[in-house]
Amino acid sequence: MAALCTQSKIEAALAKQRSFMDTWGAQLEQMLQMCVLLVPVQEEDDDKAGFWSQVVYSVSDLFNLYRTVVLRSPDEIPVCEEVDSGTLAEPSKKLRQDRLSYMLAAFALRAIRSIQVLIEMDAFRRKGSKHALQVCMRIEIVKLALKIFLRFRMPFNFYVDEVAIEDAEPPKLLEQQRNALLGQSQNSTETPSEVAPAPSAYVGRRTGRSLKVLEGAEEPSQPAAPLPPPPRVAHGLRSDCTPHTLQIAVAEVLYHCRPLIHLAMLRRRGRKSWAAWFAAVLLERLSVGLLMMELRNKTGSRAAALEAAEVSRRHNQIWWALVRSPCFDKILRRPAETLDWVLKKIPVINMFNIVELFMVLQPFYFSTSGS
After folding, report:
1. Which among 200, 161, 149 has a CA at the least distance from the CA of 68?
2. What is the pTM of this model?
């Protein structure tokens, strides 16, 4: 009873936060984003890596994540019961607990991603590069544990990240679609007296003459059959998603082990190792290819949209390899330095330190890990 009361208080607090973020969230987020671009990168020893610029960016990112989590309706969370009711009946206690635990774990994972560069910077400044890579390994293990926890809460047979879900379904999108369905259902159950009356005269299209409608000539309009209540937004995910196969399991192992293997090779061979670079690219490309070949979801369903968004996210992450060392040092460093020099010569634009901030963050693992 006490646990249920506590859960109700948490849900009430989230409802209040949802109302506040719905009104003021966008304006606050824009202000924080402007602060990120205007904070200069200092050259002094205490901030040679742009630490405080990254602090401002992390605060902005955390606020954006919190706003996204709060604005999402509980019914939009991709967690469903073992046996879906298919209607908007009151969710069970277990479903509410699963939704809350999923939401907290998803927010914790994305919060760690927001501050992981700061943690690596601090470790690098205190004890050097090798210690920073050790800290990166510990953070990746924590992230992997959270991903496993989320994977067992969602109905899919492979991990679908919150970033992909947000791209496919912006906050409140499904809630608006559900409300539209509810409005249609309510309109269809109106009484005949609420329906617009039939016209009392017939007007000819060519002559314009009006003729009175004969009494009894028209049958009284029959009330339309009420539409069934719209299904839960998570209903059908378990049945519409791609079935589990051995190839999907192999793809998942390769994808989630890539950061750990990459870090282990960097610790042994150094950050400039081409072998570590090629191994990371090969593992990512192979895992995405195996996953794409095994997609067997129901076309046009919500499960298909979310799985496609996750595959697209993983495919786009492969491009992070171009900004990892040593590839970046060999191909893109000189063009990036030239672009930074040109932008600093242009008035107004030189106030924004986008390229400069990227250049000082690039050597760090978590600025290019994509995990």
Report:
1. 161
2. 0.73
